[in-house]
From TrEMBL:
Record-linked Gene3D superfamilies: 1.20.1050.10
Name of protein: GST C-terminal domain-containing protein
Classification via InterPro entries: Glutathione-S-Trfase_C-like, Glutathione-S-Trfase_C_sf, GST_C_Tau
Domain GST C-terminal: 1-115
Organism of origin: Amborella trichopoda
GO molecular-function term, one example from the UniProt record: glutathione transferase activity
Length: 125
């Protein structure tokens, strides 16, 4: 996750809101770079099945959904990041990946607890 994502997760209010554009810019850079380097009509960067790059990027998918939930901002969607959106859709529907992705509700509960700890810690610094 980018530095902006970490800031959004661990702050509140104005400080959090000002990081959303930076996170969107990060995702646009990722979108454009991936489009340049991986222009095939295959569902994955490596072809028909996920490879290492999918695993690296894919490990952040659920966290970006949490950031969307936290900020109310659409970060990855068909309109602003169509390449990433399409890839994420294919990746999340791939058999083994679909089985292995953490349950979003459980991850949200974990994230809320973790965020509470981070916010409490930041009060004492």
């Amino acid at each position: 996750m980018s530095g902006s994502g970490k800031t959004i997760f661990s702050t509140q209010g104005e400080e959090q809101e000002k990081e959303v554009p930076a996170l969107k810019e990060f995702l646009n850079i990722l979108e454009n770079g991936l489009k340049i380097d991986f222009r095939s009509n295959k569902p994955f960067f490596n072809g028909e099945t996920p490879g290492y790059l999918e695993l690296v990027i894919g490990s952040s998918i659920r966290w970006f959904k949490l950031l969307e939930h936290k900020t109310g901002a659409k970060l990855i969607d068909q309109e602003s990041t169509p390449f990433l959106f399409s890839w994420i859709t294919d990746f999340c529907e791939f058999g083994m990946v679909k089985e292995a992705l953490p349950d979003q509700a459980k991850l949200l509960a974990f994230a809320k607890k973790r965020r509470g700890i981070l916010l409490e810690f930041s009060k004492h610094q």
